[in-house]
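queue> holo job accepted (nicotinate mononucleotide)
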Amino acid sequence: MVVPQTGRRRVGVMGGTFDPIHHGHLVAASEVAQSFGLDEVVFVPTGQPWQKGVVTPPEHRYLMTVIATASNPRFTVSRVDIDRPGPTYTIDTLRDLKEQHPDDDLYFISGADAIAQILTWRDADQLWKLAHFVAVSRPGHELSVTGLPKGDVSLLEVPALAISSTDCRSRVSRGFPVWYLVPDGVVQYISKHHLYRSVA
Ligand SMILES: Nc1ncnc2c1ncn2[C@@H]1O[C@H](COP(=O)(O)OP(=O)(O)OP(=O)(O)O)[C@@H](O)[C@H]1O
Ligand SMILES: O=C(O)c1ccc[n+]([C@@H]2O[C@H](COP(=O)([O-])O)[C@@H](O)[C@H]2O)c1
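queue> job finished
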């Protein structure tokens, strides 16, 4: 991938519910950072993800995201979505981050499953002017951007990690380990706070 040299900082935005954050998220962010020459990747846990059912309270998801990203000097975590009342929309996420990074280029990172749904997101037609979108491969999902504006979306194959938060929650509820699926500190956080003991 040849990255155009604009002289501006390049900031990745990795939005997710992170319930819990797992190594699939971290590998995706790391690979996009490498391929697109990103200076920073901001992880943004959702507040109220309106297309998901009941989720773990935002503070737990936020803290697990902080723990998981703490060791990487280029990874940071933003509270913009959890501090904004109401349902979480990416249009608001990107507007808030653009305000905080007026001189930077934003790259929104998403998996193949999420990008396939993007036309159902609020104000989808206005997303493209706020960020470049990078869709990464994910086992079990076709990586395609049919119907999306070509210049505004890139596809990237990343090492396949067949991990999902749904599976992590289900494993914890059944007494199976999640060691090596999520970072060690997240395993300990889940245990300490008795998360996912029963899964809806
Ligand atoms: N294993 C993975 N490989 C690549 N991308 C992933 C992977 N898991 C999640 N993503 C992407 O990370 C973003 C945030 O995902 P999310 O927090 O919803 O995790 P999830 O594992 O899909 O959760 P759940 O199973 O609860 O739906 C989405 O864009 C999603 O496509
Ligand atoms: O903007 C929307 O309407 C919208 C609808 C669904 C998902 N998103 C965003 O997509 C990202 C991944 O979401 P999720 O629910 O798969 O964890 C996260 O940043 C969400 O805010 C955004």
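queue> The radius of gyration is 16 Å.
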